[in-house]
């Protein structure tokens, strides 16, 4: 809980009313809520003038795969695509074997092997073509600035406050004012 949030009720009590900044709803002021207990809270609402709102920015780092190429040409090795096809077929067959029972399981195993072989061949071919052009896939780290909130300075009844909000409030900020006695033994009724 920020210092401004703890001090706000005490400063509101000490300040003279400024009716130009205060708007209220009598039902809201009384604290009546159809789902709440029948005892109203000592709460009111008003509007504060926003003096400034500054973006709070965080640097986010992400890793993105990127193709890097050199000016060399290599020969194609058909074993690379064959290996990819075989590995893809084995993985596909193992996954297909987990489906169904009896003849359905056999059919799913065959279908998984064919699909896995095609996928493995495609992946291996793309990688082999990139390598044949002298290219390779590397992960590149990127930094991006992201707005994570706003530090807002505002004035309510002549006093300045500061809060961090997840949005830019514009020119006015609705504030909740809660008043309680500064007596440890006093109970709010």
Automatic annotation (TrEMBL):
Which compartments is it annotated to reside in?
A: Membrane
Q: Which UniProt keywords apply?
A: Membrane, Signal
Highest taxon of the lineage: Bacteria
Q: What InterPro entries would the database entry show?
A: Bact_OM_lipoprot/Surf_antigen, Gly_zipper_2TM_dom
Q: Name one Pfam family in it.
A: Rick_17kDa_Anti
Q: Where is the Glycine zipper 2TM domain?
A: 84-123
The residues forming the signal peptide are 1-20
Per the record, GO CC terms?
outer membrane
Cross-referenced PANTHER family? OUTER MEMBRANE LIPOPROTEIN, PTHR35603
Protein name per Swiss-Prot or TrEMBL? Glycine zipper 2TM domain-containing protein
The scientific name of the source species is Arenimonas malthae CC-JY-1
